[in-house]
Write the structure tokens for this entry.
Amino acid sequence: MSSRASRRLLAKELAAAAAAYQAAAVIPHCAKCAKPCCRLDSLVLELEWKQLKSFWRLEESRTAFDKKLSAGQGPEEIRAGDGLYYIHSKACPAYDDAHRSCRVYGQELKPLGCTDFPVYEDRGCVVADLRCEAVNIEALAATIAGAVGQEFRIVKSADEEFPFLVSLSARKVGTKRKLGD
């Protein structure tokens, strides 16, 4: 098997392990979370126009909304940039506070960032956002180790600028480089 093919296979295994951990440990915790990420207290939600229009129940055109937003007359929690909309400091309208759940969970409309948060595969490693109280980095590392097998060791490293983002990479036993470097 070529090096590129083995990197792709490893990335798929890591993505599957991240998704399995998310399903087993994170999602069940959401209903009892003390600080739901959907409140956007410390997170930023990235939305496309279709999602923004639906979540905020906007009737006007995108052009009219953007004009209003740039004039400072739009919702204060929304910022536009690079064709996307960034929401912060106010709970996501798709979050049902009474039921402590997402109204668009499992639907195409659910933002990718919500689907991935707090554990996801990125360029050959699994990234965990420790701002989520459901993430247990040791349990996640064990899940990944079980998925990739004994020929790999799991190496943890925190982002220097954002230390709550921890990357878990799988390295072949006996090598110093991350597979894919």
